[in-house]
Amino acid sequence: MFRFLRKKRVEEAVPEPRPEVNVAPEPEPEPAEPPRAEAPAPEKGGLFNRLRTGLARSRGALGDSLGTLLLGKKEIDESLMEALETQLLLADVGLEATEAVLERLTARVKRRALNDEDALMGELAEVLAELLGEQHRPFEIQPASPFVVLVVGVNGVGKTTTIGKLAQRFKAAGHRPLLAAGDTFRAAAVEQLKLWGTRAGVPVIAQGEGADSASVLFDAVSAARARGADLVLADTAGRLHNKGHLMEELAKVVRVLKRFDEAAPHAVLLVLDAGTGQNALAQARTFAEVAPLTGLVLTKLDGTAKGGVAFALAKQAGLPIQFVGVGEGAEDLRPFEPRSFVAALLGAEAP
Ligand SMILES: Nc1nc2c(ncn2[C@@H]2O[C@H](COP(=O)(O)OP(=O)(O)OP(=O)(O)O)[C@@H](O)[C@H]2O)c(=O)[nH]1
Ligand SMILES: [Mg+2]
């Protein structure tokens, strides 16, 4: 069950009136009970709070307005349905996912008697989490020599940053990553990756500007084998999904990797900027035509109110969201977890 914080916040804001009694000065008040939201283990609480902070704008667009809509409601009538629909569409949830949410919510509410004002919000949260859960598959590194992850996407979505964050995460988890500077269009791209490599203490394989991207990846896989690295995280140049020759180059990279290992690339992550909203779906479709995508990374959730696009992607892209980016720091990339995401988005307690 999702537990919402809204009621508690109101109670905190309006203290109980004290009885008037004429006696000696009051004793020091007992230290206040810590709020329930802080009860989980410190790491879990800390990470959840970071996600919650990152999703503040989307929560403003979706969670708060849904909360206001549903306040005091125990049943769904037509006007509430319409208002809900508008709100979900405004928050970039997309038409298909919005319809699915409303249908399922109606079905759930019919089956249950709702007896307090948070119950309807709780049912909505369950429906949203269920929708995200249907596509959900966590990112996993399988034994391979090495496990090759290709990171692709349009310009500026956060590919290089995501690789840097992943390098730190997987190194800390005991892997031996190696980074491949497959973006050979700009010298600055290699420098940016090297900076992340230095920060994470992870080697970076690069060639000169203008080198063939497939050749850099070939080098990187050879180097990983020679050095016993179990994981290659390969950066690629940003490419507009409607530029044919760049997309063809990506297809070539995939073909070259297969010469090493038929199963490579073992994972292909498409990075999407949450701020692009519904356009993210078009990007997912086009990239899927040239590379065997295995998962999505949704970045810059902290800078946008369009976090609702996660539901559109879950419903329509046919791919799991595996990580979300909620800031520029290394710790701002989180494995995607449907229930935490929904709780943070709607202002509920950590699940
Ligand atoms: N706020 C925020 N900024 C992010 C996030 N992810 C990446 N960025 C920023 O977005 C900008 C672009 O990130 P890059 O990693 O260079 O993007 P890219 O896809 O590699 O870009 P190209 O190589 O030019 O295609 C940088 O300033 C990053 O710090 C995120 O989750 N939140
Ligand atoms: Mg880059």
What is the strand and helix layout of this fold?
Blueprint: H1 6-13, H2 42-54, H3 56-70, H4 78-90, H5 95-111, H6 119-135, E1 147-152, H7 159-172, E2 177-182, H8 187-200, E3 204-205, H9 213-227, E4 231-236, H10 244-260, E5 267-273, H11 279-290, E6 295-299, H12 309-316, E7 321-325, E8 333-335, H13 338-346
Helix pairs in contact: 2-13, 3-4, 4-5, 5-6, 5-12, 6-12, 6-13, 7-8, 9-10
The structure holds guanosine-5'-triphosphate and magnesium ion.
Structural write-up:
It contains 13 helices and eight strands. The protein has a domain of 190 residues: 3-Layer(aba) Sandwich (Rossmann fold). The protein has an eight-stranded mixed sheet with strand order 3-2-4-1-5-6-7-8, with helices on both faces. The protein is an alpha/beta fold and 351 residues long. The N and C termini lie close together (8 Å). β7 and β8 form a beta hairpin. The structure holds guanosine-5'-triphosphate and magnesium ion. Guanosine-5'-triphosphate binds next to α7.
**Low-pLDDT windows of residues:** 7-43
Structural class: alpha/beta
Strands of the largest sheet, in order across it?
A: 3-2-4-1-5-6-7-8
Mean pLDDT: 86
Instruction: Give the total of beta strands.
Output: 8
Envelope shape: elongated
Q: Which range best describes the helical content: under 10%, 10-25%, 25-40%, 40-55%, 55-70% or over 70%?
A: 40-55%
What is the rounded distance between the termini? 8 Å
Oligomer: single chain
- Per DSSP, the total helix count is 13
- The CATH homologous superfamily of the domain at 147-336 is termed P-loop containing nucleotide triphosphate hydrolases
Q: Examine the secondary-structure arrangement and name the CATH architecture of the domain at 147-336.
A: 3-Layer(aba) Sandwich
CATH topology type of the domain at 147-336: Rossmann fold
**Approximately what portion of the residues adopt beta-strand conformation?**
5-15%
Largest sheet: 8 strands, mixed
Rg of Cα set: 24 Å
Order of helices and strands: HHHHHHEHEHEHEHEHEHEEH
The first-level CATH class name of the domain at 147-336: Alpha Beta
Ligand inventory: guanosine-5'-triphosphate, magnesium ion
